[in-house]
Design brief:
By secondary structure, chain A is mostly beta strands. Chain A is 0% helix and 54% strand. Chain A is globular, with a radius of gyration of 13 Å. In chain B, a hairpin with a 2-residue loop joins strand 5 and strand 6 (54-57). The chains are: A mainly beta (112), B mainly beta (114).
Chain lengths: 112, 114
């Protein structure tokens, strides 16, 4: 049973515009959320995270928003650049657990 | 260079064979993890280890064996490979610190079982 869901397998955005990637989760025990970026033939690399005590975290062009009541988080990339083209994974963890639960990923294509 | 390395990067083998995937990290991280990535499933945890000689099952452990005799190494063995184990395998590590510390991933091993 997929506890973390990314319902959009792909997204295309024009360079310079905003990219919004969405993630939903079902387990209300999750209290930490992360976004990873993955290029082909490479491992996922950590991008940004957010604790459940916050509703927003910003790092340069990347902002993650968390809506706990809706069990939803989103990653905003502004402005989008061609180098952002990759697969983005949402992941979550719960207290006392050492592993991460991953979504199925969204492939972002930024068109020059 | 410091980091986490996996070997081999690509492997083709036959059903029933034993195959071992290697993972080595130079950070002295306490925790190490093995995931598999399959279409429609994202990354799923196979096994993890909290320290040398301490291992535990993840979501999909059946058909896999792990060991951790040294902190820096965490090999994953398929004792009798099956076609359903064709996948991309990722090793990851993180330090002991808090829950929010992200895991660092290797570049993966693409395993094909014929």
């Amino acid at each position: 049973d997929q506890q973390v869901k990314q319902n959009s397998p792909s997204l295309s955005v024009q360079e310079g515009r905003i990219s919004i990637l969405n993630c939903d989760y079902t387990n209300s025990m999750f209290d930490y959320f992360l976004w990873y970026k993955k290029y082909p033939a490479e491992g996922p690399t950590f991008l940004i995270s957010i604790s459940s005590i916050k509703d927003k975290n910003e790092d340069g062009r990347f902002t993650v928003f968390l809506n706990k009541s809706a069990k939803h988080l989103s990653l905003h990339i502004v402005p989008s650049q061609p180098g952002d083209s990759a697969v983005y994974f949402c992941a979550a963890s719960r207290p006392g657990a050492n592993n991460l639960f991953f979504g199925t990923g969204t492939r972002l294509t930024v068109i020059p | 260079d410091a980091g986490i390395t996996q070997s081999p990067r690509y492997k083709i083998t036959e059903t029933g064979r034993q195959v071992t995937l290697m993972c080595h990290q130079t950070w002295s991280h306490s925790y190490m993890f093995w995931y598999r990535q399959d279409l429609g499933h994202g990354l799923r945890l196979i096994y993890y280890s909290a320290a040398a000689d301490i291992t535990d099952k993840g979501e999909v452990p059946d058909g896999y064996v792990v060991s951790r005799s040294k902190t820096e190494n965490f090999p994953l063995t398929l004792e009798s490979a099956t076609r359903s184990q064709t996948s991309v395998y990722f090793c990851a590590s993180r330090s002991l610190d808090t829950q929010g510390v992200p895991q660092h991933f290797g570049d993966g091993t693409r395993l094909s079982i014929l």
